[in-house]
Amino acid sequence: xxKHVPVLLVAIPLVVAFMLxxxxxxxxxxxxxxxxxxIVIIMVLSYLLIQDVMICKKIFYxxxxxxxxxxxxxxGLTFPIRIALKIDQFSLLFIIMATTLSFLFYLFxxxxxxxxxxxxxxxxxxxxxxxxxxGMLIANDLFTFFVFLEILSISSSALVSFRxxxxxxxxxxxxxxxxxxxxxxxFLLGIAFLYAQYGSFNxxxxxxxxxxxxxxxxAIVMLILPLAMKCGVxxxxxxxxxxxxxxxxxxxxxxxxxxxxxxxxxxxxxxTFGSHVYVSYELGILFILFGVLSMFVGVTQALIQxxxxxxxxxxxxxxxGYMLLGVGVGLSVIKSGDASFAIYGKIAMIGxxxxxxxxxxxxxxxxxxxxxxxxxxxxxDLNVMHGLAHYDKFTAxxxxxxxxxxxxxxxxxxFVSKLIIYESVFHYNPLLxxxxxxxxxxxxxxxxxxxxxAFLGMPPERKPVEQPILVKFSMVILSIIIVAIGLFPQGxxxxxxxxxxxxxxxx
Length: 507
Fold this sequence. Notes:
2 strands, mainly alpha, two-stranded antiparallel sheet, globular
């Protein structure tokens, strides 16, 4: 059965998503449990691959409709049409992250989203989001990647506008869909340029035959920029504040997770095709530029926000900058020929990918805590919030853990990945490290403002409602993982991060 895991990771959530409306009409509790079980199954399947993929360095190929899973088809539309899937060390890192966090966010949402809020609709779209992520992560041809990118975008925009009885969520959902439509249209055009030359969508085949033509370079730009837009990279971040702030708390966390899956696609395409058309250095410099802009613009915009969720949304933009900075340094030196630069480039990439995992954890937890705060105060305005720590010490504690982690304070996970980035990038350009440290200081300042406004001061006029057990449990697990990774980072670096970096690029 293990050889069928690639297709099961997609088939299980897709099949369950079609079944859920019918199950919901019969029994709502069974519907909620069924969706949760489906996510647990694909999470367990992803963990089962760690031994083979991460330790034994095995790569899983799967060709839907062909007995030969490693076949490279020169003609992508010849009959019968085949779908190429692949799981290597790099994709498995993101699969483990996506399945684990999707399950924890689902636990939170199962008791956070009320039944009278069209929970049937919510559950179906949530599972579709998971299917979209899994499809993007295992796709080994560009058109399949595009199809699942569309599934993720459509389900995400529908969930952003989930609370249609309010004025602003539908606007945020339409805005997100509009931006996604532009991005995916250009992405599809980039795919068409490659298919016109080489007659295939298969990523491995394209990597083998691309010869660096002008059309190749144009295609790479048209593939990379839409994914950068979906990641919320400055200056293509215009959709982030409204989308993250108007969505329900667990959906803000899931949309953020979806943007990190798009970051996976960005890195995969840059490293797979960049060196073969001789633009690795240029792409690396572009990533560094995007990273510095995102860090600085995101954190300065966050500082002036009074809306707690918009503040966290701008910090999501800022944190992507660290990831782009680390991986961009690695990409820019991959063909430098300088052994010492290559070593620091690899370390920078380890820091960048490690920060992807860490950011998904603490940023998800921050969005969940913001949902608790907004639900209690019935507003997102920090000027109205005060004294929540008097009655809800649990939320205050988990918020503090996540806030200190995103600020890079030891001994939490954010400190470790940021420190790796600081040290490695310093050898590339000390100014970049100074900017990154300065951004972390401003991040800490903005979250001190949030903690002072929302949790300190006079007690609120009414006591908050006690949070359900699954809401607390999901937040506790996230907090424990954040602390554990900060205290014992070597395990995850050796087991997951280093194999992923080695799979992404050969130094």
